[in-house]
């Protein structure tokens, strides 16, 4: 079972998370943007089961997390400096990215 965060903040170019067990995680904006769980990034299947994937290119300039909003008690929606804001990052994904930034979502 994935634990929930006590606190989430944007600190510089990182999303800082304090988990309920007292541990802390810092995930850089580029990692978060690269592993966005949005349909735009991961793709989505149509009614016939065909995967449509239109990977959004990362901007050449530095990417930042501009703001975030909680989604229920299970996730956050991140808003990036390039305008991307359709990915919903659940606690399990954030925990995974904090431990292994090169992991796939």
Order of H and E elements: EEEHHEEEEEH
State the separation between the terminal residues, measured CA to CA.
17 Å
Task: Round the Cα radius of gyration to an integer and report it.
Answer: 14 Å
Beta-strand content? 35-45%
Query: Biggest β-sheet: count, sense, barrel?
Result: 3 strands, antiparallel
Tell me the overall shape: globular
For the biggest β-sheet, the strand order reads 1-2-3
Q: Mean of the pLDDT scores?
A: 85
Number of helices, where a helix is a run of at least 4 consecutive DSSP H or I residues:
3
Assign the structural class, choosing from mainly alpha, mainly beta, alpha/beta, alpha+beta, or little secondary structure: alpha+beta
Low-confidence stretches: none
Q: Percent range for helical residues?
A: 10-25%
Count every beta strand, where a strand is a DSSP E run of 2 or more residues.
8
């Amino acid at each position: 079972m994935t634990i929930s965060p006590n606190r989430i903040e944007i600190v510089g170019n990182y999303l800082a998370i304090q988990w309920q067990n007292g541990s802390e995680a810092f995930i850089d904006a580029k990692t978060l943007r690269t592993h966005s769980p949005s349909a735009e990034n991961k793709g989505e299947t149509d009614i016939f089961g065909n995967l449509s994937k239109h990977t959004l290119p990362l901007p050449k300039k530095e990417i930042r997390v501009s703001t975030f909003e909680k989604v229920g008690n299970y996730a956050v929606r991140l808003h990036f400096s390039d305008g991307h804001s359709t990915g919903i990052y659940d606690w399990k994904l954030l925990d995974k990215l904090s431990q292994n930034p090169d992991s796939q979502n």
